Amino acid sequence: SSFLIPACVARPVGKKELEGSEMAIKARVKEWTRLRDKQVWDESTVREWDDVAREARQRGEEVHMGRLFGICTEKGSELPQGDPRRKYKYRVVFQGNRVVNQNWDVALFQDLGSSPAAMEAGKAVDCYGSFEGHNTMQADAEQAYVQAWLKGPVTWVLLPDEAWPSGWEGKWRKPVVILKRALYGHPDAGTFWEKHCDDCLRRGGFVPIQTWQSCYWHPKL
Q1: What's the 3-state SS for the chain?
Q2: pTM (predicted TM-score)
Q3: pLDDT at res. 109
């Protein structure tokens, strides 16, 4: 006998389909606008890629140079047309596998990694919350990674044409700007987010549980 296993899979959307869909274009504009409003990068620092690299070599400075690009998918593509649960999703990411320094050598990162909570920890929380007089709640952080500052060497990113502000066309050939926030895809983004989250929790009175990574206890609450 056979049976069906339902799966929530986002359907990849190619560039041709994206450009021909008003809803997909709106999703793209929304994502770039959200990140720009959060000042993930600083457009006032715009320079030509070659000029930044040459200046860093002359000064003997270490800089990282990478690219941003967008990924478009359709959620709920298995649903009929017109269903409100069927919608386009656009995500801008840092291309972490294609980063160089001022000498065009492969850039090196801290690569400290992050320590997500273990499955056992989540089950323990579920159990604790099921006791009489207790509650368990779950929440997602809005654009979590870009809440954290990007540290380490100054990172310049190349913005694709779709993200160029008005006035850039014809003025710049290969414009780069300084990346300020730990954007998704950066090899060290998880590390910087974890440190930022840890700082926030400690300020709120939470104490880390030494034997369980990314788990905290609040003595009063």
Answers
A1: CCCCCCCCCCEECCHHHHHCCHHHHHHHHHHHHHHHHCCCEEEEEEEEHHHHHHHHHHHCCCEEEEEEEEEEEEECCCCCCCCCCCEEEEEEEECCCCCEECCCCECCCCCCCCCCCCHHHHHHHHHHHCCCCCCCCCCCCCCCHHHCECCCCEEEEECCHHHCCCCCCCCCCCEEEEECECCCCCCCHHHHHHHHHHHHHHHCCCEECCCCCCCEECCCC
A2: 0.84
A3: 76
